[in-house]
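Sharing a chain and its predicted structure for anyone who wants a worked example. Both blocks are below, sequence first, tokens second.
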Amino acid sequence: MRPTTTLTCLLAAAAFAATAHAQSVVTLYPTADAHTRDVAPNENNGSSDVIWIGRGAFWNLGNIRSFVRFDLLDLLPGNSNAITGAALSAYQFDTEPAAGGLDTNVHKVSANWDESTVTWANQPAFASQIWATAQTGDSFYTGWIDWDVTALVQDEITSQSHQGWMYKNTFETAGASRLGYFHSREYAADPSLRLQLNVETALGDAPVMTLAYDQLTAGQTTVFDVTGATPGQRIYFIYSLTGLGEQRVNQLGVTLGLRNPTSAGDAVADSNGNASFSRRIPAGAAGRRVWVQAAQQGGVSNITAARVR
């Protein structure tokens, strides 16, 4: 019997079981992101694979306001209590040459905007409340920068209102200037380094490996990549069309963070702990919401959530 068929049988036979102190991580990638500049008020950067965050006044790049939106409201509709943490994460791969960072704040956007047309001149309204702060632009640091947006995500899931968020420097008239360069949703070389929202939920097991993929497009093939797996282990790629939940698979010794999970296929991790699986997305799946997770004996990945394009 093929392993995919075996896992499908296991999933069908496994009973729901809660796991004490379990925490899944759900990874969301933006449905839109762009940066705007006051020195180029009619410039649109929505198609760029780089998003600027910070302030570049010393280099005549101006004040920067950056916008991001996620397909957030389907995550845990009406169930914000299940969220135990949320981090808005951006990978800073380069900066302007200045030591030390400056505070960049996250604000809630209060009007609709379009990635392909947003500019400084037509930017959407935003609320003055600062929900999270982190420092950007330090030339001595490359790597992930996280904004703790737990309260913001809980608030928006409860209210079922999400127009997106804005990154804005604290002092747009101050002399100091620090600008960081980050990977936007158009960055193709390594999708796992794109701007992302990682949400911890009190469901399923904590991840021990990482799942990432480019995007889900109806009628096209998507490659699902896992890193951090145990070399030689068979990795199962599992999806749900109904959302988050808990499903115990005793034969693997894991609790998935998916409701009504279905096996899509499997692959064996190489000597570096990497595994890839290709799947053609059905032509009629456009608009469907899909949650995906990988599992091996004794371990699971994060969960990715996306809407099929």
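Comments welcome. Residues 1-21 have pLDDT under 50 and may be disordered.
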